[in-house]
Amino acid sequence: MKVTRLYKVVGLILLFCVFGLGDVFAGHLVTSKKAPVRADSLSSSQIITRIQGGVALKIAGEERLYGTGYWKIELPNGGVGYIYKTHVRYKEEAMPGDTESEDGPATGFLQVHMINVGQADAIYIVCPDGKHQMVIDSGELNMGIRYPGSVKEFKNYIRSHQSINDPIELVVSSHPHSDHIAGMDWLLMNYEVDLYLDSGKENDKSATYESLEAMIIENEINRKQLTDIELPEIDFCSRSDVKVTILRPQGFDEEGMHINDYSIVIRMDYRSSSFLFTGDSEEELESKLLTDPSTAPLLDTDWLKVAHHGSETSTTEKFLEAVTPDIAAISSGGETIGTNGSEEDEAEGHLHPRMSTIENLLPYVSERSGIKTTLEAFNSSTKKWEQVTTKAAIYITNNDGDLVFLSDGDLIWKLGDKAN
C-alpha cells in the first residue's frame, strides 16, 4: 500500500513539473463541427450557445471529462459551458497564438462567415479573441419576387452564433439595396450595436430603406457614414494585429453613379493575411479604387468577396490584376429562384453569378485543398446555366451553402478544406 502511494506521489510531482501547478492540461480543444454548448455536463441540460467548427477552445475544468463525457470549456464571451467529447479534438500543444502580449491571450482563429442568404449578402466576422464581432449586410426580403427565406436564414444564423447579451461591435450596411439591408432593423433592435456604418447614400425608392432610416433615427443608433467629412475609423477587434481599413477613393461620392458604386469597400488584415469586402461595387468604383494612389496599393489581398454576387458588371480583369486573390467567395442564389429570374429574358432577372466572372477569377485563385467541385453560373453568350468542374478556390453559396473561412494570421482556408 505504501509503495502504491509513493508511486502516486511521484506521478503527481512529475505532472506538476511538466504542466505547472495551476495548469495541468496545457493543451486545448478544437471543434470538429458545429456543436452545441450546454449549461451543465448532461445531455438533458439547456443549450446556451452553438460554436462553429474549427474554433479553438480553452479547457476550463480541473478534470479531463465531466458527467457522461463532457469537457468544461471557456466560452468566447468569458462564460463557461460544457461540450461533448465527440464534437471536439484534444490537442496537446498550446492554443494558436496563445502568448501573453498587450492584446492578451488569443483564443482561436479569425473567422469570416458568408451566410447562405440566397441572392443577397450577409457576412459575420469574429475577432481571434472570440469576443468581438462585425456584421456586413443582412440578407434580402422574404416576400414577393426577391429571395424567399433570406432574412429568416440570416436571423437563424446570427441567433445560433451570437448570444443575445453579447454586443456586436460593428455593423456595416454596404449600400441601401434591400438584398443587403433587409435584416438590419431586426439586428439593430435585438442586439446592442456599438457602431452602425453606412454609405450615406439614400434610396428613397425603397420602403425597406425608408423604414430602416426611421428606426435608426428614432432609436438614436450610434452611426457613422462614408460621406462624413472625416473618414470613419473603425476598430471592431481589441487586438492590435487585426486592422480594418475603409477604402474611400477620390470621387467616391460623385453624383450620377449607380447606387452599387457607392458601396463601402473594406480591407481587413490579421497579421500577414488579408481580406477584401466589396459590397456591390461595379466597374466605375473599381476604376476609382485603381486610380487613386491612396487606395490602389491596398487592393492586393489574399481573400476576395466577389462584388455584386458575381455579376459581369464587376470583377474586371484590371481589378483582379491588382487584387490577385488566392481565394474568392461569391454570395448568390440558386438557378431560377427569386431574382435569378428567367434565363429567356435577362432583363427580368439578375442571373448571378455569371460564367464570365468565374472565368476571370480562374487564372488568379489557388487550388482548394479539398476535392474538385462543380460550379454553376449563367453564360450570357449561350443564355444558359452552365457548369464547370474545378479545384480552383472559388466558393459560391448556391453551391457550397454557408461558407466559413478561418485564418491563423498566416494562412486562410475554408473550413473543411484544411485539417486544423
Verbal overview:
This protein has 420 residues and is α/β, with parallel strands linked by helices. Helix content is 19%, strand content 25%. It has nine helices and 23 strands. The chain has an eight-stranded mixed β-sheet with strand order 13-12-11-10-9-8-22-23, with helices on one face. It has a six-stranded mixed β-sheet with strand order 14-15-16-17-18-21. A hairpin with a 6-residue loop joins strand 9 and strand 10. The protein is globular. It starts with a helix and ends in a 6-residue tail after the last strand. The N terminus is likely disordered.
Task: State the major sheet.
Answer: 8 strands, mixed
Provide the low-confidence segments as ranges: 1-25, 98-106, 344-348
- Tally of contiguous helical segments: 9
Structural class: alpha/beta
Helix content: 10-25%
* Count of distinct strands: 23
* Global geometry: globular
Which strand order do you get reading across the main beta sheet? 13-12-11-10-9-8-22-23
Query: Strand percentage, roughly?
Result: 15-25%
Give the oligomeric state. single chain
Specify Rg, calculated over alpha carbons. Answer: 23 Å
What is the mean predicted local confidence, pLDDT?
84
In whole angstroms, how far apart are the ends?
Answer: 45 Å
What's this, in brief?
This protein has 420 residues and is α/β, with parallel strands linked by helices. 19% of the residues lie in helices and 25% in strands. It starts with a helix and ends in a 6-residue tail after the last strand.
